[in-house]
Amino acid sequence: MNKLVLKIPGETNFLSKIREFALSFAEKMGFDEGALGDIEMAVDEWATNIIRHSYGEDPEFPSEKRIIEVEVNKLENGIEIVFQDRGKPYNPKNTPLPDLRKHVEERKTHGLGVFAMKQFMDELDYQYVSGVGNRIVLRKFLKRNY
């Protein structure tokens, strides 16, 4: 298969289903254990951000509309994972790099998710479409040994 789509409630108890969905596809494509770990971290981080921040910060947002759509696409040389949600706009590409030293000194336990996603994946694209919502595209490429 070259493409699969999962529509799932935007609730934390569905995070494992989202991870399994993306990892199963990536594993079949031949990603090694390290790359699978990177994909898992990025997918989990973005899905969690949607649930906690995009949907969670708006108590007026009806639960039946708190849907996360995850699409996985086979690329010629990798995988593309597309998340779409109907929450408030948030462009992770605009998130500045954190001051890691300060982060550690202040013993913060959150706030490195977008930084981590950028480190784990090879490409990250974002678009907000009015009336449709956020669309983030994560890409990971297969590494070739020559």
Number of helical stretches of at least 4 residues:
4
CATH topology: Heat Shock Protein 90
Order of helices and strands: EHHEEHHEE
> Taking all residues together, what is the mean pLDDT?
85
> How many beta-strand segments?
5
* Binned strand content: 25-35%
Summing up helix and strand content along with how strands pair, one would put the structural category as alpha+beta
CATH homologous superfamily annotation: Histidine kinase-like ATPase, C-terminal domain
What gyration radius follows from the Cα positions, in whole Å? 15 Å
Q: What are the low-pLDDT stretches, counting only 5+ consecutive residues below 50?
A: none
In CATH, what is the class?
Alpha Beta
What about the largest sheet? 5 strands, antiparallel
Overall domain count: 1
Assign a percent range to the helix content: 25-40%
* CATH-derived architecture: 2-Layer Sandwich
- Sheet with the most strands: spatial strand order: 1-2-3-5-4
Overall 3D shape:
globular
What does this 3D model show about the protein?
The chain is 36% helix and 27% strand. The protein is built from 4 helices and 5 strands; from the N terminus they run βααββααββ. Strands 1-2-3-5-4 form a 5-stranded antiparallel beta sheet, covered by helices on one side. A hairpin with a 2-residue loop joins β2 and β3. α2 runs antiparallel to α4.
